[in-house]
Amino acid sequence: MAKYIKVVDGQPVEYSLGKLRLDNPNTSFPKWPDADFLKDFDVYEVRLTDKPEITPYQDVTEGAPEFIDGEWVQSWITSDASDEEVAERKEARYIKVENQRLKAYQEVSDPLFFKWQRGETTEQEWLQTVAQIKEWYPHEED
Q1: What strand order describes the sheet that includes 43-47?
Q2: Which of 83, 86, 112, 130 is deepest in the core (most CB within 10 A)?
Q3: Which 3 state secondary structure label does DSSP give 79?
Q4: Is the domain of 72 the same as that of 8?
Q5: Residue 104 has pLDDT above 60, yes or no
């Protein structure tokens, strides 16, 4: 979906083609106006960019578009998360890993445990499988 801004007093302001039509009721607009047409109204399409990857200790929010190399480009602001947010995210990650491990234990290692109990496999095979699951779903180091 395209994103547009209107430059007002030199600053980009979020805008839309619908707003452009409402602001100019006596103007006939093409269904999809091109960049040259929009420029006459100080309206520009913003080139969208990927949200940057962040750590659990950061937050990212969309910033004001920036004029770079002749075009308006979406920008992002990265900031530190609060101590409370970091703690909540760590807890959520821990719970997610534990749930992944539980499912894997039930599907992969528990059957081996019962085979070991019946003498159909070795304790070592079961323990190796448990260790492998922990490698598949590690808890992140802080």
Answers
A1: 11-15, 3-8, 43-47, 71-80, 58-68
A2: 112
A3: strand
A4: yes
A5: yes
